[in-house]
């Protein structure tokens, strides 16, 4: 890329790492713009996604091997037939919420080439050794040892360290120029403009993103240059975290190397066809405008007290609910729907007038409510509710009295 590229490399080295390739891309190696999305799809047949962090949870592709696991984080295994979320025993609630949201989105939207019929949730120490987990361990090469949980501060340090390895290049004429604002930071979604062709190098994932208004000739140039970035040497010696081996579990992957591992991803993404794995690398400028201090707010910052609600919420006793007794001595649980005390949702109930009615459950439907949409949860997974997530549950029941039946939702 000539002397101009050398100047750009010097600038890049000051911030993080340097990618370069002196080998020219031959015509035989060049893929036409129309073929690029097919030749470089934004997913592979077996992907292990590492979910780690607290403030802006990082979602990164890692080696699909058991040694990549640890007890302090969440991992999502995605194949054409499987969508399996494995949660370490000491994973924090932000990681669990992000993992559950991501798994539900990928499975319901058939994202990343996944056509699994449902999401399998595995909890370390609970069901991770059951027959339900057999496919998970088999796809990762068989059960073996992996790391335990790190120190409590590890998640925040990881976020800061892995972001330092981010490299972003804009296509300017016939060369890639490091993007000053996006380099070594979390890129903003506002970068993705229809007239731009941008290369995002996240270490284990390299994306060429192009807007719909980018001409075929510019896409061709951008693809050639992206292949040079991908095929060149990598150097993370100036970074606190190596994105190719973030937990230092693979001794064969070094801070500097001649090529990336075979499981890493080179992808071409067109505007409007972004995957969840790609989108998770960004922050939204619109959200920052709504809450300009939110992105920089410390975790333990004391929030201003909110005005008291007119509805007083009192915690209930789960054992009392199951037994049919309230906290008040001798009282019964009273759940009024349309003026009818449905109690536990089944059985015979007696009205004030003395009439007896039979209550039956017809159906229970559950939806997982996410940031931008919602998805219906399969019946077999309806009872799997996760702390930090939001759900809508619709209970359909019938009331039968004097030979007549009324169905109520």
TrEMBL record:
Signal sequence, renumbered to the chain: none
One example GO MF annotation: actin filament binding
One family name in Pfam for this protein: Gelsolin
UniProt feature, compositional bias: Basic and acidic residues: 11-22
Domain Gelsolin-like: from-to ranges: 57-107
BP GO terms, sorted: actin filament severing; actin polymerization or depolymerization; barbed-end actin filament capping
PANTHER family: SUPERVILLIN ISOFORM X1 (PTHR11977:SF119), VILLIN (PTHR11977)
Name of the protein in its database record: Supervillin
GO cellular component: actin cytoskeleton; cytoplasm
Residue ranges crossing the lipid bilayer per the database entry: none
Keywords: Actin-binding
Coiled coil regions, renumbered to chain: none
Region listing for Disordered, in residue ranges: 1-37, 287-307
